[in-house]
Structure formats: C-alpha cells, structure tokens
Amino acid sequence: MRPRVSIVKGNNRRDNVRKAIELIAGDVVQSVAGKRIVVKPNFVSSSNQLASSHVDQVRGILDFFKESGQRGDIFIAEAASGDTWKAFEHFGYEPLIKEYGVKLIDLNQGAYSIISLRDYRGNRIDVRVSRLLLDKDIYLVSAARLKTHDVVVVTLAIKNMVMGSLLMPDKVSVHQGIPQTNRNIAALGQHVWPDLAAIDGLEGMEGDGPSKGNPIDVGVAIAGRDALAVDRVCCEVMGVEFKKVGYLYYCQEMKQGEGELKNMELIGEPLVNCITPFRLHRDVKKQYDW
Questions:
Q1: Nearest partner of 75 among 93, 50, 54, judged by Cα
Q2: Which of 26, 69, 125, 201 yields a CA-CA distance of 20 to 30 A from 33?
Q3: Spatial contact of 237 and 221, defined as CB atoms under 8 Å apart
Q4: Other CB atoms within 10 Å distance of the CB of residue 55
Q5: Segment 195-207, tens digit of pLDDT
Q6: What is the CATH number of domain 4-287?
Q7: Cβ atoms of 133 and 166 closer than 8 Å
C-alpha cells in the first residue's frame, strides 16, 4: 500500500495542520488505537519563535485528536537545547494544560536508556535517549516546521524526533562532522521514529537555519504516517534535492520509509502549487560532502 501524504494550503497555521491530518484521518485513527500520545515540538531555541514549533501548530494536532474522540493520555514532550520550561513558557504552551488536559514534559529531566553511536573516527560513543520516546506503546507525533540546517541541509520530521530524543548535552555528541552526523541521525531513527509527522510550513526558515535563518512564507501544512515520505515531500516544497540530504538517503537505504514520490499517494493541494524554493545555508555545498 502506498503511503499517503497530505498537503493543505492556507493562511491559518492551526487550521492548516488540523486539516492536513484530517485528510489522512483513517490512517491515523486506526494506527493510534487508544495509545498514549506524545507530541514532540522542536525547541532548538528557547527564545526564537521562528526557530521553534509554534503553539498553534500543536493546537491543530490536538484539535484533531480531540475531535476524533481520542481518550488516551496526551503529552507534549521535548528535550530543548536550552531550558525546556522556559521554552514552554515563552512560546505559550502552558495554557494547553487547561485547554486540552495535556501534560508538559521536559525530557532532559526524565528517564533514559543508553544507545551506542560512532564518532568521526569510528569509535563508540554512548548517548542518553529518552525512555519515553523509546516506548513502543507510545504514539509519537513529530511537530516540526520547514527549516534549513547548518550541518545536514534540512531539519524536518525525522530529525526533530531523533535529535529531540537525546538528553542535553548528548545532542552535541551526535555531531561528529558532516559524514558521521548523517549516519548517526539515521542510526538513531532505527530506535526513535515518528508514528505521525505533522509539518508546519505556514512560515519556514531559510538561510542559516536551524536558528539564525530568515522567515519565508510558504503557507502549507504537510502530514503523513510515513515520516520519510513526509520529509521527501517537504524537500520538494523547499526546492531541496532529496538525495543530497545524507541522513534521509541513509534512512531510505535502511528501508525505514518511502523516499520515492512515484510510490506515494499525494492528496490535498497539488504539490506543484506549493513549491517555494528556500535559500539554503551559506555552507550547503560542504553539507553535501557526506
């Protein structure tokens, strides 16, 4: 069965995200099956909203689960690069507790398991990965946004979930030069993988992402159960050559998802209507050397 990826175009972030998930509602409702849900935003910064997941993106996700009758517990969980609780406060996440009955979790303070990766010399390094995100009975939702990156070209659904699963300061340990960093992200994806990707592209970040770039208006939301397929569609929207993104290439080679557009079912807004080429990082040519 071909994975379905939905695209919605509009000027309201919350509605875009909700509608994108609604287009694949049958896939989502069947797969979540009453599980506890973790929505994983991206807080690469605790102060820069453009670099981080907007709370209305998360509201759109929660609206869908509320309207679909989801009865399991829902958590909003992140291991921020800075102070997670400051990010929750600064970006307006605390009202979600009363609005939806969710719980906010700082993964940096939670239980963890050790997973082994490699440094740039090929030596073993051990990193701490959130035990909550490793739990196979948890339904993981990656709430990322369209952004460029300073090491691996783009950061989307997969990278958000994988890197967000690492406790600080172990995120830094994964960065072992461009070749090994791409391999490490793909390797971690075999342990922590989104069950649903819901991408906010109302406003993306181009240029020197993931935290120092500039805004670019795109006006889309993209969703799907196959996170690699979603990231591939995001690359198309951003004008990025998918096969030049190392960790996505490795994920496809490991058969962790579908990377070929011809093997997907795209629904909603036609892809051609959404393509908005991003200006990539100033060092992007170096990032292709993996």
A1: 93
A2: 201
A3: no
A4: 21
A5: 999 999 999 999 9
A6: 3.40.50.11440
A7: no
